[in-house]
Structure prediction request, 138 residues.
Amino acid sequence: MATRLSVEHLQRIVDEAFPDHTPPVVESLEGDTLVVVQGVDERHGRPGGTVSGPTMMALADNAAWLVILGHIGPVLLAVTTSLHIDFLRKPPLDAIAATATLVKLGRRLAVVDVAITSRATGELVAKASVTYSIPPHD
Prediction:
């Protein structure tokens, strides 16, 4: 599937959309797969020295949104309709990466699988399935 936006364009969208947060860094977009990395500090943690579930869910959602935008263009009002996540391991309080793979891209819905790994250990720590509603666009 051909992409319409570059990694640099996607990063600008992230930086502008989330100015008050530590934005994730878009590392790559190759074919149907995007990799994005979230830096982590104490604000992203929970007791026990691990990355919080909401931080991992936000990264999964952002990764899905970005891989979709990479293919349909800057349709910023594409919205999440469903997000299911399984937490598999307790990651250390360190950067996490999401690999988002576009499973289906239709005119109105897109489905994305997201694998979240710990950059410190390389282990898969969560797996998500995300569905987006795509508004009418060019």
Summary: Helices lie at 7-17, 53-72. The first helix runs from residue 7 to 17.
